[in-house]
Amino acid sequence: MPSPETKTERTPETIAPAPPELLAPWRSAARLALQAEARAFARDVVLPLADELDPKKGEMPRSLIDAMAEKGWFGITIPAEHGGMGLGVFEYCLVSEELARSWLSVGSILARGQGLGTQTLDDARRLDLLRRSAKGQWIGSISLSEPTAGSDLAGVQTRAVREGESWRLTGTKRWAGFALAADFIEVLARTRDPEPGEPRSAGLEPFLVVKEPGTFPAGMTGHAIDKVGYHGFQTYQLELDGVRVPESDRLTGLYGDVGADADSGGFAAVQRGLNIARVHTAARAVGVARAAVEDTQAYLQEREQFGQPIGTFQALRFALADMAAEVAQARAFWCQVAHLLDQGEPAESESAMVKLLATEMAVRVTNQAMQLHGGNGYTTERRVERYWRDARLTTIFEGTSEIQRRIISDRMLPREG
Fold first, then answer.
1. Which of 111, 182, 363, 383 sits between 20 and 30 A of 302, alpha carbons compared?
2. SS3 track for 305-316
3. Are residues 322 and 400 in the same domain?
4. Are residues 180 and 292 in the same domain?
């Protein structure tokens, strides 16, 4: 392992302050204070853990999750009357960008709260779970994809069969992040086949599988998927063999959107949550790309060649300038789309656009950052390789870039029929 002395850029001072004007015209004193709090936490608490655990593919400790819970961040979007902060998508993404700047998975774990796993049919139970979610005491996993159904969620084949007042779930699910450590797993399953003339998504419903953290429930087994990056929590493939779920734990929607329309059907209620998830992914991608810019800025002043810092060479200075401009552009875009969602706009095309542009930007910027680090970038001595690995995933999860392009183009050029 390299000695600590070789990791010269791994200090809190390398995280430059974000220019407040980048939040305009949505800037406010409360938002700037929240941003500053999240930035300090990411710098002082998250970054040292990431540097220690990511090279070992380690998982974030429960103490980190508890510290985030104490700040109320698992309830950012939960109404104050239910114990949350009563804020919006904007603030949720604002905190997530800061956390992802230090470790992508920590920016992602916030999504496991925010009312996820609370949309049960029983009102009293839903309100109790909302309060627990806001406190960080109800943190879950979402299990949508399958080996043969990823971006095409309408192709889900896991079956849910009604047996009296309960359901039995059978099938294989893939890409269930945080599944073992979670308090619950949301599972998308098919209750019936579509009738002629119905959309392929007809009959898909989300179910709440309650479990003890650190174990899988009766009828479920899982094995961890060995990922290239996105360390911090394990991601699982799950085998469901008659997992029992009571009727009361059939859900009205996913992603914890407390404003979802319970009468619109389980699959239809997913749509707003997916839009929020796409903007959240854009913000996380911006955080990762910003990390690459800031570390590269420090490196160009530290590394010397031909008797001078390489940051004096115009080609490298201009490359850094382009990187910074792309990050600022993507941040402004996610701010705009988050604002639209908070105003009640569907913003479906805009959510797809910002997810597409921000994640593709993150791949370009982290790749350029590795190039500007030269041979040192292709080692584990520098964080830039972590940013590069993590950024690559952002173009895939929450809908691939190709799916985002299809969403956008289908709304610009509707298909006949």
1. 363
2. ECCEEHHHCHHH
3. yes
4. no
Distance CA 290, CA 365 (A): 9
Give per-10-residue mean pLDDT for the chain (417 aa): 44 50 75 96 98 97 97 97 96 98 98 95 93 97 92 90 97 97 96 92 93 97 97 97 96 62 49 89 98 97 93 96 97 96 93 98 98 96 97 95 95 79
Q: What CATH number does residue 382 fall under? A: 1.20.140.10
Residue 241 β-bridge partners: 170
**pLDDT the model gives residue 186:** 96
Q: What is the pTM for the complete model shown? A: 0.90
How many domains does the chain divide into? 3
pLDDT at 201: 86
Residue matched to tokens 């655990």: 53
Residue 262 resides in a domain: no
What is 32-66 written as a DSSP string?
HHHHHHHHHHIIIIIHHHHHHHGGGTPBPPHHHHH
Domain range for 62: 14-112
- Single out the catalytic residue among 163, 398, 402, 416: 398
398 is catalytic: yes
Nearest to 266 by CA among 89, 110, 120, 115: 120
Please indicate, yes or no, if residue 128 is contained in any of the structural domains: no
Within this chain, do residues 57 and 155 fall inside the same structural domain, yes or no? no
- Give 63: exposed, middle or buried? Use CB within 10 Å, 0-12, 13-18, 19+: exposed
In a domain, 1, yes or no: no
